[in-house]
Write a structure and sequence with these properties.
The chain has 13 helices and 16 strands. With 416 residues, the chain is of the alpha/beta class. A seven-stranded mixed beta sheet has the order 1-13-12-9-8-2-3, with helices on both faces. Strands 14-15-16 form a three-stranded antiparallel beta sheet. The protein binds pyridoxal-5'-phosphate.
Length: 416
Protein backbone atom coordinates (compact mmCIF):
# COMPACT_ATOMS: atom_id res chain seq x y z
CA UNK A 1 0.00 0.00 0.00
CA UNK A 2 1.47 3.31 -1.06
CA UNK A 3 -0.57 5.42 1.38
CA UNK A 4 1.39 6.22 4.57
CA UNK A 5 -0.14 5.29 7.95
CA UNK A 6 -1.03 8.14 10.32
CA UNK A 7 1.56 8.81 13.02
CA UNK A 8 -0.93 8.02 15.81
CA UNK A 9 -4.10 5.93 16.01
CA UNK A 10 -7.35 7.86 15.41
CA UNK A 11 -9.90 6.26 17.73
CA UNK A 12 -13.39 5.58 16.40
CA UNK A 13 -15.65 7.16 19.03
CA UNK A 14 -13.98 8.36 22.25
CA UNK A 15 -16.01 10.47 24.70
CA UNK A 16 -15.04 14.11 25.30
CA UNK A 17 -14.50 14.54 29.03
CA UNK A 18 -12.75 17.48 30.68
CA UNK A 19 -12.34 19.11 34.09
CA UNK A 20 -16.03 20.10 34.17
CA UNK A 21 -17.17 16.45 34.17
CA UNK A 22 -14.41 15.40 36.56
CA UNK A 23 -15.42 18.12 39.05
CA UNK A 24 -19.12 17.25 38.69
CA UNK A 25 -18.49 13.56 39.38
CA UNK A 26 -16.15 14.35 42.29
CA UNK A 27 -18.82 16.54 43.82
CA UNK A 28 -21.40 13.72 43.44
CA UNK A 29 -18.97 11.32 45.10
CA UNK A 30 -18.43 13.76 47.97
CA UNK A 31 -22.16 14.44 48.40
CA UNK A 32 -22.80 11.30 50.41
CA UNK A 33 -25.34 9.99 47.87
CA UNK A 34 -24.17 7.73 45.03
CA UNK A 35 -27.20 6.08 43.49
CA UNK A 36 -30.47 7.54 42.19
CA UNK A 37 -31.07 10.85 43.96
CA UNK A 38 -31.31 14.62 43.51
CA UNK A 39 -28.86 14.81 40.60
CA UNK A 40 -30.95 12.30 38.65
CA UNK A 41 -34.06 14.43 39.23
CA UNK A 42 -32.23 17.54 38.04
CA UNK A 43 -30.83 15.76 35.00
CA UNK A 44 -34.30 14.48 34.07
CA UNK A 45 -35.78 17.98 34.44
CA UNK A 46 -33.03 19.60 32.35
CA UNK A 47 -33.05 17.06 29.55
CA UNK A 48 -36.87 17.10 29.44
CA UNK A 49 -36.68 20.88 29.07
CA UNK A 50 -34.09 20.55 26.29
CA UNK A 51 -36.35 18.12 24.41
CA UNK A 52 -39.51 20.14 25.10
CA UNK A 53 -41.04 17.13 26.87
CA UNK A 54 -43.16 17.28 30.03
CA UNK A 55 -40.96 14.73 31.78
CA UNK A 56 -38.27 12.12 31.30
CA UNK A 57 -37.05 8.99 33.05
CA UNK A 58 -33.30 8.37 33.21
CA UNK A 59 -32.42 4.68 33.37
CA UNK A 60 -29.40 2.40 33.25
CA UNK A 61 -29.27 2.02 29.44
CA UNK A 62 -31.22 2.51 26.24
CA UNK A 63 -31.75 -1.25 26.25
CA UNK A 64 -33.53 -0.84 29.61
CA UNK A 65 -35.52 2.15 28.26
CA UNK A 66 -36.67 0.09 25.26
CA UNK A 67 -37.65 -2.81 27.51
CA UNK A 68 -39.60 -0.48 29.83
CA UNK A 69 -41.27 1.19 26.84
CA UNK A 70 -42.65 -2.13 25.61
CA UNK A 71 -43.59 -3.22 29.15
CA UNK A 72 -45.63 -0.07 29.73
CA UNK A 73 -47.54 -0.93 26.53
CA UNK A 74 -48.21 -4.41 27.98
CA UNK A 75 -46.39 -6.13 25.15
CA UNK A 76 -46.42 -9.88 25.66
CA UNK A 77 -46.75 -13.34 24.14
CA UNK A 78 -49.04 -13.55 21.11
CA UNK A 79 -47.88 -10.14 19.92
CA UNK A 80 -45.34 -8.78 17.48
CA UNK A 81 -43.52 -5.50 16.81
CA UNK A 82 -42.19 -4.32 13.46
CA UNK A 83 -38.61 -3.09 13.46
CA UNK A 84 -35.55 -2.56 11.33
CA UNK A 85 -32.91 -5.22 10.67
CA UNK A 86 -30.23 -2.50 10.57
CA UNK A 87 -29.87 -1.86 14.27
CA UNK A 88 -28.10 -2.96 17.41
CA UNK A 89 -29.61 -6.08 18.99
CA UNK A 90 -31.13 -4.07 21.87
CA UNK A 91 -34.02 -2.92 19.67
CA UNK A 92 -35.09 -6.53 19.12
CA UNK A 93 -33.97 -7.89 22.51
CA UNK A 94 -36.39 -5.48 24.23
CA UNK A 95 -39.28 -7.02 22.26
CA UNK A 96 -38.15 -10.59 22.96
CA UNK A 97 -37.69 -9.83 26.71
CA UNK A 98 -41.47 -9.27 26.75
CA UNK A 99 -42.16 -12.64 25.14
CA UNK A 100 -43.14 -11.00 21.83
CA UNK A 101 -41.69 -11.40 18.32
CA UNK A 102 -39.83 -8.83 16.22
CA UNK A 103 -40.92 -8.66 12.57
CA UNK A 104 -38.16 -7.28 10.38
CA UNK A 105 -38.97 -5.04 7.43
CA UNK A 106 -36.32 -3.68 5.06
CA UNK A 107 -34.72 -0.24 5.05
CA UNK A 108 -34.48 2.82 2.87
CA UNK A 109 -30.79 2.65 1.88
CA UNK A 110 -30.53 6.45 1.47
CA UNK A 111 -30.77 6.82 5.26
CA UNK A 112 -30.44 3.30 6.70
CA UNK A 113 -33.87 3.74 8.32
CA UNK A 114 -36.87 1.41 8.34
CA UNK A 115 -38.86 2.13 5.14
CA UNK A 116 -42.48 3.10 5.96
CA UNK A 117 -43.62 2.07 2.45
CA UNK A 118 -42.30 -1.43 3.04
CA UNK A 119 -43.95 -1.45 6.47
CA UNK A 120 -47.27 -0.58 4.80
CA UNK A 121 -46.72 -3.38 2.30
CA UNK A 122 -46.05 -5.81 5.17
CA UNK A 123 -49.17 -4.67 7.04
CA UNK A 124 -51.44 -4.89 4.01
CA UNK A 125 -50.01 -7.98 2.28
CA UNK A 126 -48.71 -10.18 5.08
CA UNK A 127 -51.33 -9.30 7.70
CA UNK A 128 -55.12 -9.22 7.95
CA UNK A 129 -57.08 -6.89 10.18
CA UNK A 130 -58.20 -8.35 13.50
CA UNK A 131 -61.24 -7.39 15.57
CA UNK A 132 -59.24 -4.81 17.57
CA UNK A 133 -58.38 -2.99 14.33
CA UNK A 134 -54.81 -4.20 14.77
CA UNK A 135 -53.14 -6.30 12.09
CA UNK A 136 -52.72 -10.05 12.59
CA UNK A 137 -49.76 -11.65 10.86
CA UNK A 138 -51.28 -14.31 8.62
CA UNK A 139 -48.51 -16.89 8.97
CA UNK A 140 -47.93 -16.75 12.74
CA UNK A 141 -51.36 -15.39 13.89
CA UNK A 142 -49.50 -12.90 16.11
CA UNK A 143 -51.13 -9.49 16.63
CA UNK A 144 -48.91 -6.59 15.59
CA UNK A 145 -49.12 -3.96 18.31
CA UNK A 146 -46.30 -1.51 17.61
CA UNK A 147 -43.67 -0.24 15.20
CA UNK A 148 -40.17 0.42 16.53
CA UNK A 149 -38.26 2.60 14.05
CA UNK A 150 -34.59 3.36 14.68
CA UNK A 151 -33.12 6.80 13.92
CA UNK A 152 -30.07 5.17 12.32
CA UNK A 153 -26.82 7.10 12.78
CA UNK A 154 -28.79 10.21 13.77
CA UNK A 155 -30.92 10.48 10.61
CA UNK A 156 -34.56 10.91 11.59
CA UNK A 157 -36.95 8.11 10.69
CA UNK A 158 -39.90 9.32 8.61
CA UNK A 159 -42.11 10.02 11.63
CA UNK A 160 -45.02 11.51 9.66
CA UNK A 161 -45.32 8.30 7.66
CA UNK A 162 -44.93 6.11 10.77
CA UNK A 163 -47.55 8.07 12.70
CA UNK A 164 -49.95 7.74 9.72
CA UNK A 165 -49.43 3.97 9.86
CA UNK A 166 -49.76 3.98 13.65
CA UNK A 167 -53.09 5.79 13.44
CA UNK A 168 -54.42 3.71 10.56
CA UNK A 169 -53.52 0.35 12.11
CA UNK A 170 -53.85 1.27 15.82
CA UNK A 171 -50.17 0.68 16.57
CA UNK A 172 -47.96 2.28 19.22
CA UNK A 173 -44.61 3.79 18.21
CA UNK A 174 -41.47 2.95 20.20
CA UNK A 175 -38.64 5.03 18.73
CA UNK A 176 -35.09 3.79 19.18
CA UNK A 177 -33.37 7.16 19.40
CA UNK A 178 -30.08 5.77 20.76
CA UNK A 179 -28.27 7.79 18.05
CA UNK A 180 -30.67 10.69 17.88
CA UNK A 181 -30.15 13.05 20.80
CA UNK A 182 -30.01 16.36 18.92
CA UNK A 183 -31.64 15.04 15.73
CA UNK A 184 -34.56 17.08 14.41
CA UNK A 185 -37.57 16.20 12.30
CA UNK A 186 -39.76 19.01 10.94
CA UNK A 187 -37.59 21.41 12.99
CA UNK A 188 -38.42 19.69 16.30
CA UNK A 189 -36.02 17.61 18.34
CA UNK A 190 -36.68 13.86 18.34
CA UNK A 191 -38.40 13.30 21.68
CA UNK A 192 -40.47 16.48 21.41
CA UNK A 193 -44.14 15.59 21.96
CA UNK A 194 -45.30 17.85 19.10
CA UNK A 195 -44.00 15.24 16.64
CA UNK A 196 -46.89 12.96 17.64
CA UNK A 197 -50.27 13.88 16.16
CA UNK A 198 -53.12 14.58 18.60
CA UNK A 199 -55.21 11.52 19.37
CA UNK A 200 -52.54 9.19 17.98
CA UNK A 201 -51.78 5.89 19.75
CA UNK A 202 -49.10 6.00 22.47
CA UNK A 203 -45.52 6.89 21.61
CA UNK A 204 -42.30 6.37 23.56
CA UNK A 205 -38.80 7.54 22.67
CA UNK A 206 -35.62 5.90 24.02
CA UNK A 207 -32.15 7.52 24.06
CA UNK A 208 -28.71 6.11 24.93
CA UNK A 209 -25.89 7.74 26.89
CA UNK A 210 -23.47 4.87 26.26
CA UNK A 211 -19.80 5.91 26.16
CA UNK A 212 -19.75 6.52 22.39
CA UNK A 213 -23.03 8.44 22.17
CA UNK A 214 -23.78 12.13 21.49
CA UNK A 215 -24.04 12.63 25.26
CA UNK A 216 -22.01 10.08 27.23
CA UNK A 217 -22.42 9.02 30.85
CA UNK A 218 -20.55 5.72 30.44
CA UNK A 219 -23.78 3.76 30.56
CA UNK A 220 -27.24 5.26 30.65
CA UNK A 221 -30.50 5.80 28.84
CA UNK A 222 -33.61 7.93 28.84
CA UNK A 223 -37.29 7.40 28.20
CA UNK A 224 -39.87 10.00 27.21
CA UNK A 225 -43.51 9.09 26.75
CA UNK A 226 -46.59 10.59 25.13
CA UNK A 227 -48.55 10.09 28.31
CA UNK A 228 -47.40 10.96 31.88
CA UNK A 229 -49.07 7.75 33.14
CA UNK A 230 -46.87 5.63 30.86
CA UNK A 231 -43.79 7.42 32.16
CA UNK A 232 -44.91 6.90 35.76
CA UNK A 233 -45.52 3.20 35.10
CA UNK A 234 -42.03 2.96 33.55
CA UNK A 235 -40.60 4.72 36.63
CA UNK A 236 -42.16 2.08 38.90
CA UNK A 237 -41.01 -0.78 36.65
CA UNK A 238 -37.48 0.67 36.60
CA UNK A 239 -37.34 0.45 40.42
CA UNK A 240 -38.31 -3.13 41.27
CA UNK A 241 -42.04 -2.31 40.97
CA UNK A 242 -42.02 -0.15 44.10
CA UNK A 243 -45.28 1.76 43.92
CA UNK A 244 -43.76 5.12 44.80
CA UNK A 245 -40.39 4.89 43.10
CA UNK A 246 -39.37 8.37 44.32
CA UNK A 247 -39.47 7.07 47.90
CA UNK A 248 -36.45 4.91 47.21
CA UNK A 249 -34.03 7.77 47.56
CA UNK A 250 -36.24 9.85 49.83
CA UNK A 251 -36.37 7.15 52.49
CA UNK A 252 -33.05 8.12 54.10
CA UNK A 253 -33.89 11.84 54.20
CA UNK A 254 -34.78 13.38 57.59
CA UNK A 255 -38.51 13.12 56.84
CA UNK A 256 -38.20 9.89 54.85
CA UNK A 257 -40.10 6.72 55.56
CA UNK A 258 -38.96 3.11 55.43
CA UNK A 259 -42.39 1.98 54.23
CA UNK A 260 -42.87 1.00 50.60
CA UNK A 261 -44.95 -1.48 48.66
CA UNK A 262 -44.02 -3.61 45.67
CA UNK A 263 -47.13 -3.72 43.52
CA UNK A 264 -45.72 -5.66 40.54
CA UNK A 265 -42.57 -7.38 39.29
CA UNK A 266 -40.22 -4.58 38.25
CA UNK A 267 -36.58 -4.38 37.29
CA UNK A 268 -33.42 -2.73 38.62
CA UNK A 269 -32.90 -0.23 35.82
CA UNK A 270 -32.17 3.00 37.71
CA UNK A 271 -29.72 5.73 36.73
CA UNK A 272 -27.28 6.92 39.44
CA UNK A 273 -26.31 10.37 40.72
CA UNK A 274 -22.73 9.73 39.52
CA UNK A 275 -24.03 9.22 35.97
CA UNK A 276 -26.38 12.19 36.33
CA UNK A 277 -23.50 14.45 37.41
CA UNK A 278 -21.65 13.45 34.25
CA UNK A 279 -24.83 13.90 32.21
CA UNK A 280 -25.53 17.39 33.56
CA UNK A 281 -22.01 18.50 32.63
CA UNK A 282 -22.31 16.93 29.17
CA UNK A 283 -25.77 18.43 28.58
CA UNK A 284 -24.33 21.95 28.94
CA UNK A 285 -21.96 21.13 26.10
CA UNK A 286 -24.42 19.26 23.87
CA UNK A 287 -24.96 22.14 21.37
CA UNK A 288 -21.19 22.43 20.94
CA UNK A 289 -20.82 18.63 20.63
CA UNK A 290 -23.44 18.60 17.85
CA UNK A 291 -21.73 21.48 16.03
CA UNK A 292 -18.38 19.67 16.37
CA UNK A 293 -19.83 16.48 14.86
CA UNK A 294 -21.26 18.47 11.94
CA UNK A 295 -17.89 20.17 11.37
CA UNK A 296 -16.13 16.78 11.29
CA UNK A 297 -18.77 15.37 8.93
CA UNK A 298 -18.18 18.29 6.54
CA UNK A 299 -14.45 17.47 6.44
CA UNK A 300 -15.20 13.85 5.52
CA UNK A 301 -17.81 14.92 2.93
CA UNK A 302 -15.56 17.48 1.27
CA UNK A 303 -12.47 15.28 1.29
CA UNK A 304 -14.23 12.20 -0.09
CA UNK A 305 -16.44 14.01 -2.63
CA UNK A 306 -13.80 13.82 -5.42
CA UNK A 307 -14.01 9.99 -5.23
CA UNK A 308 -17.29 10.32 -7.15
CA UNK A 309 -19.16 7.04 -7.55
CA UNK A 310 -16.49 4.95 -5.78
CA UNK A 311 -18.44 5.67 -2.61
CA UNK A 312 -21.91 6.68 -1.45
CA UNK A 313 -21.62 9.50 1.07
CA UNK A 314 -24.15 9.84 3.90
CA UNK A 315 -27.00 12.25 3.25
CA UNK A 316 -26.01 15.79 4.27
CA UNK A 317 -29.05 17.29 5.98
CA UNK A 318 -29.36 19.78 8.85
CA UNK A 319 -31.67 17.27 10.59
CA UNK A 320 -29.09 14.61 11.38
CA UNK A 321 -27.18 14.73 14.67
CA UNK A 322 -24.26 13.03 12.87
CA UNK A 323 -23.95 10.29 15.46
CA UNK A 324 -22.27 8.21 12.76
CA UNK A 325 -20.50 8.91 9.48
CA UNK A 326 -21.62 5.79 7.61
CA UNK A 327 -19.65 5.61 4.38
CA UNK A 328 -20.87 3.12 1.78
CA UNK A 329 -18.40 1.60 -0.65
CA UNK A 330 -19.36 1.02 -4.27
CA UNK A 331 -18.00 -2.52 -4.36
CA UNK A 332 -18.52 -2.76 -8.13
CA UNK A 333 -15.94 -0.02 -8.60
CA UNK A 334 -13.37 -1.16 -6.01
CA UNK A 335 -10.74 -3.91 -6.08
CA UNK A 336 -11.29 -4.84 -2.40
CA UNK A 337 -14.30 -5.77 -0.28
CA UNK A 338 -15.49 -4.02 2.90
CA UNK A 339 -13.52 -6.27 5.26
CA UNK A 340 -10.28 -5.79 3.32
CA UNK A 341 -10.81 -2.01 3.24
CA UNK A 342 -11.61 -2.04 6.97
CA UNK A 343 -8.30 -3.83 7.61
CA UNK A 344 -6.44 -1.35 5.40
CA UNK A 345 -7.91 1.51 7.45
CA UNK A 346 -6.67 -0.20 10.61
CA UNK A 347 -3.24 -0.54 9.00
CA UNK A 348 -3.39 3.20 8.29
CA UNK A 349 -4.10 3.79 12.01
CA UNK A 350 -7.70 4.82 11.43
CA UNK A 351 -10.28 3.45 13.89
CA UNK A 352 -13.58 2.51 12.27
CA UNK A 353 -16.60 0.30 12.87
CA UNK A 354 -19.40 -1.43 10.98
CA UNK A 355 -22.95 -0.38 11.88
CA UNK A 356 -24.65 -2.83 11.95
CA UNK A 357 -24.48 -6.58 11.52
CA UNK A 358 -28.15 -7.03 10.51
CA UNK A 359 -30.26 -8.61 13.26
CA UNK A 360 -31.08 -11.70 11.23
CA UNK A 361 -27.37 -12.47 10.75
CA UNK A 362 -26.91 -13.16 14.47
CA UNK A 363 -27.20 -16.85 15.31
CA UNK A 364 -29.77 -16.22 18.05
CA UNK A 365 -32.10 -14.33 15.72
CA UNK A 366 -31.48 -16.84 12.92
CA UNK A 367 -32.72 -19.47 15.33
CA UNK A 368 -35.77 -17.69 16.72
CA UNK A 369 -36.87 -15.69 13.66
CA UNK A 370 -35.52 -17.80 10.82
CA UNK A 371 -35.16 -15.07 8.16
CA UNK A 372 -32.88 -16.53 5.48
CA UNK A 373 -30.00 -14.40 4.15
CA UNK A 374 -31.51 -12.67 1.12
CA UNK A 375 -34.85 -11.95 2.84
CA UNK A 376 -33.89 -8.32 3.60
CA UNK A 377 -31.62 -7.44 0.68
CA UNK A 378 -31.44 -3.69 1.22
CA UNK A 379 -30.16 -4.01 4.80
CA UNK A 380 -27.85 -6.86 3.78
CA UNK A 381 -26.29 -4.80 0.96
CA UNK A 382 -25.99 -1.77 3.21
CA UNK A 383 -24.11 -3.94 5.73
CA UNK A 384 -21.79 -5.37 3.06
CA UNK A 385 -20.86 -1.86 1.88
CA UNK A 386 -20.73 0.10 5.15
CA UNK A 387 -17.86 1.46 7.22
CA UNK A 388 -18.47 4.01 10.00
CA UNK A 389 -15.66 6.53 10.25
CA UNK A 390 -14.57 8.61 13.28
CA UNK A 391 -16.61 11.74 13.89
CA UNK A 392 -16.41 12.26 17.67
CA UNK A 393 -15.74 15.80 18.99
CA UNK A 394 -12.90 14.22 21.01
CA UNK A 395 -11.01 13.55 17.77
CA UNK A 396 -9.27 16.76 16.72
CA UNK A 397 -10.00 18.45 13.39
CA UNK A 398 -6.43 17.84 12.27
CA UNK A 399 -6.76 14.10 13.07
CA UNK A 400 -10.01 13.97 11.08
CA UNK A 401 -8.39 15.82 8.17
CA UNK A 402 -5.46 13.40 8.16
CA UNK A 403 -7.76 10.36 8.42
CA UNK A 404 -10.00 11.65 5.61
CA UNK A 405 -7.05 12.39 3.32
CA UNK A 406 -5.54 8.93 3.91
CA UNK A 407 -8.94 7.24 3.38
CA UNK A 408 -9.42 9.09 0.11
CA UNK A 409 -5.94 8.09 -1.10
CA UNK A 410 -6.56 4.45 -0.12
CA UNK A 411 -9.89 4.25 -1.96
CA UNK A 412 -8.52 6.05 -5.04
CA UNK A 413 -5.72 3.48 -5.14
CA UNK A 414 -8.30 0.66 -5.01
CA UNK A 415 -10.44 2.02 -7.87
CA UNK A 416 -11.13 -0.47 -10.65
C1 LIG B 1 -29.48 1.66 17.65
C2 LIG B 1 -29.16 1.30 19.07
N1 LIG B 1 -30.16 0.98 19.89
C3 LIG B 1 -29.95 0.67 21.18
C4 LIG B 1 -28.69 0.65 21.69
C5 LIG B 1 -28.49 0.25 23.13
O1 LIG B 1 -28.00 1.30 23.89
P1 LIG B 1 -27.41 1.02 25.35
O2 LIG B 1 -26.00 0.58 25.19
O3 LIG B 1 -27.53 2.37 26.04
O4 LIG B 1 -28.27 0.01 25.98
C6 LIG B 1 -27.61 0.98 20.89
C7 LIG B 1 -26.24 0.96 21.46
O5 LIG B 1 -25.25 1.19 20.88
C8 LIG B 1 -27.84 1.31 19.54
O6 LIG B 1 -26.82 1.62 18.72
Amino acid sequence: MAVKPLATFTPFAPPLIDEREIEAVASALQSGWLTRGPRCELFEAEIAEYLGAAGALAVSSCTAALHLAHLTLNLGPGQGVITSPLTFVSTAHAIVYCGARPFLVDIDPTTGNLDPNLVRKFLTEECRLGGSGQPIHKETSLTITAISPVHYGGWPADLEAFWRLAQEFNLALVEDAAHALGTTYNHQLIGNPSLRPNDAPPGLVCFSFYATKNLATGEGGLLVASDPELLERARILSAYGISDARKIWGRYAPQGTWVYDVAELGHKYNFTDIQAALGLAQLEKLPQFLADRRERAQIWLETLAPLGDLVILPKDTPETAWHLFPLRLNLLRLKANRDQIFQSLRDLNIGASVMFIPLHAHSYYRQILGYPWGALPLAENFFAEEISLPISPAVSLSQIEAAATATKALLAELAL
